[in-house]
Design a protein that fits this description.
It is built from six helices and ten strands; from the N terminus they run ααααββββββββββαα. By secondary structure, the chain is of the alpha+beta class. Among the domains are: 62 residues, no CATH class; 148 residues, Cupredoxins -  blue copper proteins (Immunoglobulin-like, Sandwich), CATH 2.60.40.420. The strands form two sheets. It has a five-stranded mixed β-sheet with strand order 3-2-1-5-8, with no helix packed on it. β1 and β2 form a beta hairpin. It is elongated and about 90 Å long. Bound molecules: copper (II) ion. The site of copper (II) ion has 7 residues, from loops.
Length: 389
Amino acid sequence: MRMLGLTSIVLAAGLALGAPLHAQNSAAPVAPAAPAAAATPQSAGTSGAPAGTPATSAAPTPAAVADPTLDAQGRPLTVAAPGMGQPEDALYGLQEQVTPNGREAHWFHNWILMPLIVVISVFVLLLLIWVIIRYRRAANPTPSRTSHNTTIEIIWTLAPVAILILIAIPSIRLLAAQFKPAPDNAVTLKAIGNQWFWSYEYPDHGDIKLTANMLKEQTEVVPGQRFRTDADGPRLLATDQRVVLPVGVPIRLVTTAQDVIHSWAIPAFWVKLDAVPGRLNETSFIIEKPGVYFGQCSELCGARHAYMPIAVEAVTPEVFARWVASKGGKMPSEGAEPQSTTAAGNDAGDDTSNGMTDEGAPTVNATAAPAVTNKPATQNPAGLGQADQ
Ligand SMILES: [Cu+2]
């Protein structure tokens, strides 16, 4: 019985390790009814820009193609929908998953781990209650002097082992799937953590660089500056620029950081990947549904850790191609070479080097390259960074 109790403790500990996802779901704020701000200019600092020009912070040239994700005023066309890709009021369990790995993990949690934990916990509880009642001093004045029973000892050793092996099979399969290298036709997104915002690069799509800062509330900005509306997303999760990715296409996510360790996490994608200075971490996923998905930095990284959200807009590959064009980039197929040969010597085992560094330099310490600092944080007070370091 002790072994069984131990097993349930181990399982419970495993569940607790998975708890940050829950915590993130429930701790993230729910969007309050923000004042409608349809008439407010959305692009701070670009008042002179013609209508239709997206308020990009890092676009190298004025784009001839209009950004298909923004309207003429620069507001996002795809409105963040409650119940999809964002925390929900009173949501019990995980967010709806929109990647194959996420769906499998969700199934694993709901149909293997939770039932198993419940059954074992209830079984151990019933045994305890039975022992407490049946063998109390009043009911059992002369206790048995039995100290060994080989049969029961073999059972309570082997049963937990069998249970753990049964869990290990789907668990290791899922673990392997999460770190399976992306295929050659994957879209590479490089996410760079900074104190305290995310910047992004699309190394396979020309020189596209984005900087995403959290959108502040209307009461927190000076008149004329862009602030969050419900169309942008929930409070503390909406960003001034969304990461645009195609659906149905493998995404190769590469993370690194500029200063301290951050973590790029989107609960609906089942993705949480640390962004470590001087290192490149990689994972891959396929988004199955168009929509807007939100996440947060998930590694305690300093004073404004809670204010560096992640917003991803998943669009069809056609819209993605137009978005790339609007940012002055180009699809890999438009280039002189196919994507799989853009980086010299690039192959499946070496694909983190694909575009990560300029001259095919080793990927180690790639963040030392100044190219990462495409733009300072526009909304973070300058003094905070120094004070915290
Ligand atoms: Cu961070």
